Amino acid sequence: MIRLSIPLRQALSRLSLPVLIALAFGTMLLGKADALLAERARMALADALAPIWSILQQPVASVRGTVQEAEFLLSLRAENARLREENERLRRWQATALALEAENAVLQRQLRFMPEAAPAFQTVRVVADGGGIYARAVLLGIGPNHGVRKGQIALDERGLVGRVTEVGLRSARLLLATDMNSRIPVVLEGSRARAMMVGTNGARPRLQHWPEGSVPEEGERIVTSAEAAAFPAGLPVGIVRRSEGGAPEVELFARLDRLDVVRLFDYGLGGILPPEAVARPEPRPRR
Amino acid sequence: MRGRPASAMGLLRQVDAVARAAFPTSLTALLMVLAAVPVGLPGLVPAVALPCIVFWSVFRPAALPPLAVFGLGLLGDLLSFAPVGSGVLTLLVVVGLVTRWRRFLVKQSFLAVWLAYCGVALGAAALEWLLQVVLGWRVVPVAPGFYQALMSAGLYPGLAWIMSRIHEAMSRAESAP
Questions:
Q1: Predicted ipTM?
Q2: How many domains does chain B have?
Q3: Full domain range(s) for residue B110
Q4: Predicted TM-score (pTM) of this structure
Q5: A177: which DSSP letter?
Q6: Could you tell me how far CA A122 lies from the centroid of its own chain?
Q7: Best of B31, B37, B50 to disrupt the A interface by mutation (most A CBs within 10 Å)?
Q8: Residue of chain B whose Cα is closest to the Cα of A34
Q9: Strands A160-167 and A171-176: what pairing?
Q10: Highest CATH level, class, for A183-253
């Protein structure tokens, strides 16, 4: 410990706050000028903390499970009635689906249709919130030899969740489809018209840039489009809902508020990444 | 081994003092890391950091030097993927203001401190919003910042209750001979 005279020490302690505030401005400039450095620092920190978060995942999940169980108990009757009704409806759909499947098989045989190989995927756990208040993202805990790449597409059990934007050693950041920076090319399944799904940080992304004359209709299904080689065509995204102001929004199939595990698909696509992700997507390793 | 028992006691006491001095910073850092676990509430990390920082800089300013605040701000920025430096500046400005009002705030009742805290949280959210707009160069909605300030104001009583228990225990330990 260096011994300083009392007036000098007082002067130093009075100076430290302004100096640090100036340093904070410096940090901001540095973070702005060298975005890659900031990204590396973030992923290094996330890598270091990922094991702690993974351990915490167990108790958090069990608490959440208990709460959910209690909610289920409360709504048992109503839920049962709803499920009975839904089951009836799904039975009718099952009959239709079986008929269509048989018809499809016949048609494919006649056309010598070559089916696409099912894409490889890996299931990873969501360990932490990676967004803050002005962004919607989550951190994924991944193993050391994971093979996760930037630009991979994440789906939960129902539909599209988002894309991987940053990859570290033990963690990866997944930008959700609801984030403000998220722009996803989609197709309106009814009219086959193309549109853009634009994140707003709210629960429902907005639809924009649909062609004139094919206005998105309430309840229409939305799937991804292969435009710009960022997504494969036909992944389920959500259905169109009208906001109070009448603007078309997308109610996502994926349950982004309760993500536990997601599936990362490797379609080997190298399309556009969101603006804050500086580096280009890495090419898929040759096999 | 030539050791004097008195010096061993002195060493223990020093370790104790260092632990006490480092406790507020490490507790805040720990809470921030825990707040990053996803529970369905976005923006919990900065909302948890602010009550801790305000409480300690009002009631135990010596234990929270500006350098520690800088480190905590940086941790928060990296954890919450905010523009680097925005949280640092916000926290430093908050600490600067709070230390200036500290003599007045220490004497007030809990309710008055909480009200003052609500004002500080709103101001901090406004500053953070401004920095977000300037650094990202695009207008972001005001609502999330407001929501974060509300959440942080709601978290303050619980956190402050725990921390004031700890603060009392620490004061007792310090005044003990």
A1: 0.80
A2: 1
A3: 5-175
A4: 0.77
A5: T
A6: 15
A7: B37
A8: B84
A9: antiparallel
A10: mainly beta
